[in-house]
Amino acid sequence: MGLVWLVPIAGIAAILLAVYLIRDTLARDKGTPEMQDIAARIVEGANAFLRRQYMTIGGLAIVAAIAIGVVLALLSQTDIDGDAVVTSADKLGMGWRTAVAFLVGAICSGVAGYIGMFVSVRANLRTAAAAARGGIREAVAVAMRGGAVSGFLIVALSMLGVTGIYYAYSADAKAEIVPFLIVGFGFGASFVALFAQLGGGIYTKAADMGADLVGKVEAGIPEDDPRNAGVIADLVGDNVGDCAGRGADLFESTAAESIGAMILGVAAYVAATKAGLPNAQVWILFPVVMHAFGLLASMAGVFSVRAKEDEDPMNALNRGFYVSVVVAVGGLALATFMMLGQVVGNPGWLFGAGLVGIATSIAFVYITRYYTEGKFRPVQDIIEGARTGPGTSVVAGTAVGFETTMSTAVVVGAAIWASFWLGGHITFPDGSPVVHGGLFGIAVATMGMLMTAAYVLAMDAFGPITDNASGIVEMSGAGSAVRAVTDRLDAVGNTTKALTKGYAMGSAGLAAFLLFSAYLDTIESLKLGQLLQQGVAVAQATAQAAEFRRVDISVPTVFIGALLGAMLIFLFSSMAMRAVGRTASAVIDEVRRQFREIPGLMEGKARPDYARCVDITARAGLREMIMPGILAVSLPIVVGVVLKAQAVAGFLMVGTIVGMLLATYLNNAGGAWDNAKKTIETGTYIPKGAKEPLKKGSAIHAAAVVGDTVGDPFKDTAGPALHVLVKLLATITLVMAPLFL
Amino acid sequence: MGLVWLVPIAGIAAILLAVYLIRDTLARDKGTPEMQDIAARIVEGANAFLRRQYMTIGGLAIVAAIAIGVVLALLSQTDIDGDAVVTSADKLGMGWRTAVAFLVGAICSGVAGYIGMFVSVRANLRTAAAAARGGIREAVAVAMRGGAVSGFLIVALSMLGVTGIYYAYSADAKAEIVPFLIVGFGFGASFVALFAQLGGGIYTKAADMGADLVGKVEAGIPEDDPRNAGVIADLVGDNVGDCAGRGADLFESTAAESIGAMILGVAAYVAATKAGLPNAQVWILFPVVMHAFGLLASMAGVFSVRAKEDEDPMNALNRGFYVSVVVAVGGLALATFMMLGQVVGNPGWLFGAGLVGIATSIAFVYITRYYTEGKFRPVQDIIEGARTGPGTSVVAGTAVGFETTMSTAVVVGAAIWASFWLGGHITFPDGSPVVHGGLFGIAVATMGMLMTAAYVLAMDAFGPITDNASGIVEMSGAGSAVRAVTDRLDAVGNTTKALTKGYAMGSAGLAAFLLFSAYLDTIESLKLGQLLQQGVAVAQATAQAAEFRRVDISVPTVFIGALLGAMLIFLFSSMAMRAVGRTASAVIDEVRRQFREIPGLMEGKARPDYARCVDITARAGLREMIMPGILAVSLPIVVGVVLKAQAVAGFLMVGTIVGMLLATYLNNAGGAWDNAKKTIETGTYIPKGAKEPLKKGSAIHAAAVVGDTVGDPFKDTAGPALHVLVKLLATITLVMAPLFL
After folding, report:
1. Could you tell me if the ipTM is greater than 0.90?
2. What is the pTM of this model?
3. Using CB atoms, which residue from B556, B665, B713 is nearest to A395?
4. Helix H segments across B171-245?
5. Which residue, of A305, A424, A635, B345, has the greatest Cβ tally within 10 A?
6. Domain extents in chain B
7. How many Cβ atoms are within 10 Å of B102's Cβ, its own excluded?
8. What is the pLDDT of residues A72-92, one digit of tens each?
9. How does residue A1 score in pLDDT terms, banded at 50, 70 and 90?
């Protein structure tokens, strides 16, 4: 069966490499005692937050698992053993299998997030120490390798989890049923991802805003000043939001999108089996093999990163990305021609579709850079806006953010169109057409785009590691030369974080189609089961069930579903932003209290109680994540139960479109505002018609800082949470489909 | 045929009343010579802008009319004479009729806008004079009656235009074809509305921001100071944006929505004619009769407005609104039971659907007030946000704006659901079901909601009139007691402007369904014509054509269309905002130049050159409206030609959903920011946990002013332009449908 043996090999290789990288990181120089002291507090704070967060999420997950098990044991219509009757054993089996898969998915996601953060909060210290010794090259290597632990583990656990559960459930179920049995895994992963990203996003921005507003604005002390009780919470926040949160996001992407592609493969599998063609399981197992090649490509990329002392470190990371891309193209060729070539007469079309996916990932990298780097027109528009005050700067950023939706829509639309067209040409080896061949093209494109996921994740985790390193250097009182090194790395980290968001959103957009079709396959097969059980003749039932998969948005219930799906995106973003505001108030109150009540704090004679501030932020942030999370989980179910299966499909599809575009707006506007401020701070930007460059501390800089403050909850809380929300909608509707008939 | 005779009576009554109100307004006291001088400059500036704007729009409209005529003469498939063959005479007839209807619609819209503004720029002076004499009661009456001229004329011209063209085209075409012949009228109206609202919106905010930024911020002189060259442009802007722009918007609503409902009535008309039932034309002519009753209801409302000296003038306007509502309910009862009762066995269901529409209009009034008045939680959230700086204030306003999409989506969704359900019960008098009965329920609900359109428009025009009155009082140096009166009226005007936007968006959302179904009817009948001409048998062609009206969003091209439709909304908003920024720069440069180059200006010894500033703003604003306008007109055509009819339907429907929600966000966030600032300025708001009220001039007030600046182009340029865009998409796809097969 082709290259399935690659999956355990690549998975185990990735895990071994991650272990090696963890040991390598831990063995490196830990810098001065001051640095170690600060880093220890970050470790402590991060552990405290994660412990508390996982307790909350764990409790919610157990409740959800039980609910899923009960609902499916009562309502599912899946004929697991293939005896053409849906017995109560089938129903019960569907219930427990989905509930178990849900928990496994949830646990894997949690483990991947935890280990990634375990390394990240230690790599920060080693990066700071390397920078202190003046070596930008070593600092880049430490940060990148620390980040790679997350990247490798997340993709490997996702791939091994899906494959493992596939084989476990294959023992007593027909092969074409198994993909439907494991959708719980994707739901578990997205359930954890939603809360991890939302809780982490609220925490990180509340701590950031709270610490800044009291420290910089009220008390007039610098950012990251050790007297500010909120600074450790701020540094912890970078890890929990960008590292653990985004890790859970991409864990979920790779898992859910594999499952969507597997469900899509079922139709081809059934047709191939009927026709007596060999290796029919290739149709179902292809996605995990693509991930295996992707892991290998990402490894090659990570180990090729070598920064030169005198260049922009971003160039080094970009070279690594292109190494990944080149290796991924090779892997794609092997996967399509060697593996899919066994079941497809003309695999070249699918190779083309995979290239479309890889090209899409590159396009997103360029688009994000254009819209968020200071040397291009959009960020400069914001700076020009800042010349007439904060209001016009915010309006300019809003216009830039809205404009970026164009590239997202055009690139995703073109990728769907091209890969669908390419896939539409595929045939079985005997020349007969493949059902849903076009959708299979989209599946291969999605997998192609995700091949570089582990590398992109490593770059993403580079962000919080260097950000933390910069904070540690600042707080430990290292010299300005050291700060110059870490500031450079920090700026690169901002870019990589923005890239990852674009990439995550783009892949979610491309994958949306797989998940839609998986949902439609699910409701079609459920309807067919229901009709057959009601004694409807097979031909008529098949026709009726096929009719059931059409999502006609001109039908009022479907339109209302679509309207509510779009609305959920706005409402959820609104709740996430308000949550940041309320949590930040808690931080502000606590930092103010410490300034007031701890004697000698302002004079530097006493230390603030960092742990208490971390704890308060964590409590408030986690409390605030509950309501939006519950809204996101319950609204699709309510719509489905009241307005039925097609309305949920409209809800899902239009929710996905709006989610994708609004997240693009929020992420890119936030990134552009941030970099408008940073560009002014470099002291090199000369505005149109002026002779002097803008300076830090000027009124124009102050106006740009307002934009940056606005952008913080946009790009680090609401935007990233929307990626996860979009995918959660897909997995929740898949799992809960039996409720919607 | 029932009550069709009411249409000319109500129409002529409305026009006569408008003439009476114009004479009444002109006959009133014109105040001091200073006031008259300023008012004369506003009149001059408004005329200059409108002349220039209508020249531009006229040129574009002629090009568009020719293009439409040519395209339809080549490609249309409508069998005008009903001889079952589409001849070149049919095609040519379709071409010229649509082109003529387009031009008539465009001209009517222009005339209505022009006359409304003619009165508005004169009523402002009389309102100021009435206020100067201390009579809030008379000031309210003058402003309301001046506004009513717009309201009456716009609704009357729309109703008479649609009815007139219906009868004119009925001469040589079958009755069921006529509604398809007059869709050009709606397109003409929305074409003018798009440019009028966009150009007016860009002009008004660019003048406002430009004048404020140089005057208040740079030169440190008060708002509306006569030394500022931009102030007249600012006062002109209020009229061209809020009065002419919104007037064109609602002219288009009443026209396009009538036509949509008429097309919907065609199926019932055909069925009733076949069954030999009497009065079948009622099905088609019902919408204009509803408008006639609506006009009468609005007249009753306008003439019942009596402000008491010691009350909030808003209460007087609200009482008038409720008088309109009560009379509208009576009219609805007559229209449904007396007119529709002739063709429907159970008109009570439609009465219910109409009540749903009226209730929806009331709901929008309450929702808008909740989200934009200072006494409720949302605006207070923004004020609380301002306590920690402008950034947090902007974030709080964004969260509030996003949140408001919930009520819009829920109210529109519930109204569609309820009226569809009610309409689904209707039958012919013989008890046989009516095709698309549910959609007819939605049509009646839409017409019910629009019954109060003339009253709402009168309230809307109240806004710029009182705003101008306030400016005239300020600039003519009247005492603070007079200013207190006009400030109160101005605040009320802000609320009525916000209400109108909510109302316009809500009615557009409800009407969207009619326009979708009109589009689907159109492509179905075009496809049927095409198939029959290709020699396909009738039964098979009918089935294939019926299939053609399904908009399955899970089909990739439809999904891509939907994605691009959603994207257009964001991109168009982005372009509108950037246009404001660029136009404002032109204003800023000119005001600065005059301060610099006119000797004695700053000392009040010389007058600025207002006219030049008006002219520069007009040129820049009109130049900037071209690109977004062309994008809006061309993208749906490109999508239709490339991706075909169903993809355009997806584009239209999802574009409508996103447009409705994004406009809701932009309008309400803008209104809430504005009122957060105003609430602080009242000096009565005491923040949570504080003892002193906030004051004008404090840092918190400055933070709120930033929010207000951000909100200006949101609520007065991009948001209102989106209303029109959404309806333009519907009419353009209707007219251009033959291109998309």
Report:
1. yes
2. 0.96
3. B713
4. 178-181, 183-212, 231-238
5. A305
6. 6-305+312-740
7. 30
8. 999 887 778 777 778 888 889
9. low
